[in-house]
Design goal:
This protein has 7 helices and 11 strands. It is of the alpha+beta class. The protein has 2 domains: 60 residues, Leucyl/phenylalanyl-tRNA-protein transferase, N-terminal domain (Alpha-Beta Plaits, 2-Layer Sandwich); 152 residues, Leucyl/phenylalanyl-tRNA-protein transferase, C-terminal domain (Aminopeptidase), CATH 3.40.630. It is globular, with a radius of gyration of 17 Å.
Length: 250
């Protein structure tokens, strides 16, 4: 039986072991998208995902797709594109632009899971220094990016977009480099896609994933803006610790 969340208790969720294996780890229904509830959910390996006609649905898949920042795979073609430095990258420079680009319909029916209430919820988290964006620019045009939530030293990827070849991959490489430099332990990619696997993501049993969250979410984090105020930086791999052998509701 799927649990119905108490609308007045923003910190109580069922044990994730009670999530249904099909479809995709559905755990609970209801509640709200308050900052407190969302932060508590992510800390415990739970995230919201629902369509316009659905109530709020909460998920905890098993297995869980995870990317370790220092292990991202950079293919030869992406390596060449990074070397060209034709695009530039910023952090937290245009969170609203990124999330609204991620929300644009990507199918013939015009559907999107990022409804206005979802966008508003993540904007509130951004204002609190918990949600962050990576922007990829061609001159002054936003051509790609991603956003997610950072708690302690864990990053929870939510969505990404591309308007030019490899722009979302460049955003992810830049994010991995920065998170590795800051000592972040993992990026939660939620559910498996071949795109994420090609970039180095792996699947972990949910219990192992939760144990990693207990470790990394408790570590000191960065709860301020990630925008350093400087000029946009060209993508670079010269100093990256990442694996070059080669983030989801994308």
């Amino acid at each position: 039986m799927i649990a119905l969340l108490d609308p007045h208790d923003q910190t109580r969720f069922p044990d994730t072991r009670l999530a249904l294996r099909e479809p995709n780890g559905l755990l609970a229904i209801g509640g709200d998208l308050s900052p407190m509830r969302l932060e508590h959910a992510y800390r415990h390996g739970i995230f919201p995902w629902f369509s316009a006609d659905d109530p709020i649905l909460w998920w905890s898949p098993d297995p869980r797709t995870v990317l370790f920042p220092e292990r991202i795979h950079i293919s030869r073609s992406l390596h060449k594109r990074l070397r060209k430095q034709a695009l530039s990258v910023t952090l937290d420079r245009d969170f609203e632009g990124v999330i609204r680009a991620c929300a644009q319909p990507r199918d013939a029916d015009g559907g999107t899971w990022l409804m206005p209430e979802m966008i508003a919820a993540y904007q509130r988290l951004h204002a609190r220094g918990l949600a962050h964006s990576v922007e990829v620019w061609s001159n002054r045009e936003l051509v790609g990016g991603l956003y997610g939530i950072a708690i302690g030293r864990a990053f929870f990827g939510e969505s990404m977009f591309s308007r030019t070849t490899d722009a979302s991959k460049i955003a992810l490489v830049h994010l991995c480099q920065q998170l590795a430099d800051w000592g972040f332990g993992l990026i939660d990619c939620q559910m498996r896609t071949q795109h994420l696997i090609s970039l180095g993501a792996i699947e972990l049993p949910r219990a192992q994933f939760i144990a990693l969250l207990d470790r990394f979410c408790a570590a000191p984090g960065r709860t301020e803006s990630w925008d350093d105020g400087g000029a946009p930086a060209p993508p670079s791999i010269s100093d990256t610790p990442c694996d070059r052998s080669g983030a989801h509701r994308a």
